[in-house]
Amino acid sequence: MSGLLLLHVTLVVISLALFTWRGVRMWSGRPVDSRRAGRLIPDTIDTLLLISGVVLAYLWHVAPWADGWLAAKLAAIVVYILFGFVALQYRGDRRINRVSFIIALLVMGYIVAVAHTMQIWPWL
Ligand code: HEM
Fold first, then answer.
1. How far apart, in whole angstroms, are the C-alpha atoms of residue 108 and residue 110?
2. Residue 60: CB within 6 Å of ligand 1?
3. What is the 104 CA–ligand 1 centroid distance (Å)?
4. Does residue 1 register a pLDDT over 90?
5. pLDDT tens digits for range 54-85
6. Residue of 1, 12, 79 to test ligand 1 pocket, by largest number of atoms within 8 Å of CB
7. Which residues contact 113 (CB under 8 A, 6 or more apart)?
8. Residue 72: CB within 6 Å of ligand 1?
9. Does the C-beta of 11 come closer than 6 Å to ligand 1?
10. 8 alpha carbon to ligand 1 midpoint, in Å?
């Protein structure tokens, strides 16, 4: 595994761990309110994750317009970000946070499966 891919996957693991922690805290009605732990660190990790992905794609000559799996992955990342945002930021009916959190985790599972198999439908 190349160093960059290792970095990318390490960032995925940290990002997912932070998202899960914040989601569980939100679920139990005690949202993380520390600026650093709740925003700055996760935002930095996620930015580095996206940058490492773009560099990987550039170096490995894969592009979303040529490789369907990467297009599917990017589309799923947008969906993940939207549901992740609602899961962590929405203030109101807590069921909306919870359902969004579960959908975001399922979409994340899809993203990892697509990245690993390089197939749009990884389970087929
Ligand atoms: C939420 C964001 C992301 C997640 C969770 C994610 C997840 C992963 C994972 C788990 C792998 C390793 C697959 C394996 O070898 O088992 C991977 C590889 C890769 N990712 Fe990402 N990624 C993300 C963002 C991106 C972005 C934004 C790009 C490009 C624009 C990208 C491009 C790639 C490429 C080119 C590989 C190498 C695929 C290969 O093994 O040949 N990733 N990603």
1. 5
2. yes
3. 17
4. no
5. 999 999 999 999 999 999 999 999 999 999 99
6. 12
7. 122, 123
8. no
9. no
10. 7
